Recover the amino acids of this structure.
């Protein structure tokens, strides 16, 4: 299933989502050192912060985001990682790092960091392309920055 994104005015968002953005900004600027401090400062529970933190970004921040970290579970078969890297390259993504676990029970976890500034198509299309590769069992964005 492809990830879908929406542009939404702040005034219609739930209060917890808006406070999550404020807490992330406090952490990013160094005004606070811990999630606990940030959540306390904006009067938000830590559980709400963790629930929303990976899904909400100010629009100007998304425009600057150039590196995306993707986690995948791949079957332990020859050539699958090569096909994944080829798919990323076909979208003009630049792989910066690759970390792979030792395969256990026929599966390996691979985490790649991709520089995305040259990707012209919607990012979700690249993720869908990765999901369509035979042997790729799971694809998830685990970080942006």
């Amino acid at each position: 299933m492809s990830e879908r994104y929406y542009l939404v005015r702040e005034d219609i968002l739930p209060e917890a989502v808006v406070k999550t953005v404020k807490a992330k900004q406090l952490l990013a600027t160094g005004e606070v050192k811990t999630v606990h401090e940030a959540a306390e400062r904006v009067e938000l529970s830590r559980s709400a912060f963790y629930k929303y933190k990976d899904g909400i970004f100010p629009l100007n921040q998304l425009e600057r985001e150039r590196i995306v970290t993707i986690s995948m579970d791949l079957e332990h078969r020859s050539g699958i990682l090569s096909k994944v890297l080829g798919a990323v390259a076909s979208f003009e993504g630049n792989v910066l790092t690759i970390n792979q676990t030792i395969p256990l029970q026929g599966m390996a976890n691979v985490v790649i960091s991709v520089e995305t500034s040259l990707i012209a198509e919607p990012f979700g299309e690249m993720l869908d392309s990765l999901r369509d590769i035979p042997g790729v069992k799971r694809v998830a964005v685990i970080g942006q920055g």
Observations:
- Strands lie at 67-75, 94-100, 107-115, 136-144.
- The CA atoms of residues 96 and 127 lie 17 Å apart.
- The longest helix spans residues 15-29.
